[in-house]
Amino acid sequence: MTRSVADELADLLTLERLEDNLFRGQSRDIGTRYVFGGQVLGQALSAAQQTVDPSRHAHSLHAYFLRAGDIEAPIVYAVERARDGHSFSSRRVLAIQHGQPILNGSVSFQIAETGVEHQIGMPEVPQPEDLQPPVPLPPEELAALPEKVQRWLTRRGPFEFRPVHPRNELRPARRPPYQQIWFRLTGTTAGDALMQRAMLAYASDFHLIGTAMLPHGVSYLSHELQVASLDHALWFHRPFRVDDWLLYSCDSPSAQGARGLTRGQIYSRDGRLVASSAQEGLMRLHSGD
After folding, report:
1. pTM above the 0.90 mark?
2. How many domains does the chain divide into?
3. Residue 205 is among the residues annotated as catalytic for this protein
4. Does any domain span residue 118?
5. Which of 205, 249, 252, 277 is catalytic?
6. Marked catalytic residue, from 49, 97, 204, 279
7. Residue from 97, 229, 249, 276 carrying the catalytic annotation
8. Which residue range is the domain that position 264 belongs to?
């Protein structure tokens, strides 16, 4: 029986426990040169969650990408139980490959509490049903790209994306540094709230640094551009389902020093702000000489 891409993502984010605070995850080649950053984020969160009482849910994750991950090798996650307080728990996570750290992160958990609430409203955009899926590249243009890039562009990934304003990544036009993308898990998942958070951490690494490229007429397919995620922050605000449409509203307030900063707000389709993110990424232009 063929497993769905949603089930494959759940398997990817379900780690093998080696010791009380030690876990191992596998990697999946999705056409990127190195391990996809969202995979390491989701697995690091999954590892931390397994060391906390299930009544405490992650409300924030902060991580630094230290080295590129090797797709061909498993990743070991070492969790440090930094603190368990009355309301909050804190965990530090180190992702390791070949004896070297590739990610250093912290996750904070909290018991369910009530209090004052407010949120910024969701942007007024078309509903996902009113938007078309991205148009695939013509076969002759696809064939001219490196094999790994071809796999990236033609893969059937676990998430479906529908940008409000699509862009040709091979011939990127200059645009203001903001964009909105509807996304959802392909298929359905029976995952609990813990798996929902790990899956959203995975998906949150898409489109962020790309927003900082919009004003400069470059994309991740530009030969003269070196791109890498440097850090990532994610805050969970309200319950959500990744198998229903979510809107990722991203903006980039600044790019400087070969780095671009991007922020994201994730809304459910009924307008609730369910999560926020931030990322700084390397954007190094080469002259081509």
Report:
1. yes
2. 1
3. yes
4. no
5. 205
6. 279
7. 229
8. 5-111+133-285
